[in-house]
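Show me any protein, fold above all:
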Amino acid sequence: MNQALTAAVAGFGTGLSLIVAIGAQNAFVLRQGVRRDAVLAVVGICALSDALLIALGVGGVGAVVVAWPGAVRAVGIIGGVFLLCYGALAARRALRPGTGLRAEGEAAGSRRRAVLTCLAMTWLNPHVYLDTVFLVGSLAADRGPLRWTFGLGAALASLCWFAALGFGARLLGRFLARPAAWRVLDGLVAVTMLALGALFVAGS
């Protein structure tokens, strides 16, 4: 029992250390949370996707994918182009404060668009595969029979983080009710997306 708990805690800490960073996915979840736009759907997609990818990594899929570097390169290029496009849209919003970027008091974007964007942000992001399938998978393998317990801890960390980020972001609603604050947020999102997109395309 103590060994299982240790493995779960180690998995939780590993998952949290990998996911708590400024990135495309976190920036998107934060923005949706502040706008209170399809937050439950976005949090659910991110957490379930991470859980599935972690399960694939723990199951040994990571070692198989490594044998096909062409697939990893293709994902990097496609994901990089997507991030560049999303970053350009965020930059446009930051430069045009009259587009209605307010946390409250306006109609939220369509749930379908939010879901599709979240799916693309998750599954076209090479870092997601590196962190969950490869890194968590390889670390879990060192736990032997407790590798699934380690993976469960990592998946739980992902769920806790995305829930805190998505539902906790609304606490910033009053601050981000000011258009200038939204311009800063979208500016940060734009810089993050464009930088990551350029790195992915250049490194693929």
Notes: The radius of gyration is 18 Å. DSSP finds nine helices and no strands in the chain. Confidence is low (pLDDT under 50) at residues 99-108. Residues 69-95 form the longest helix (27 residues).
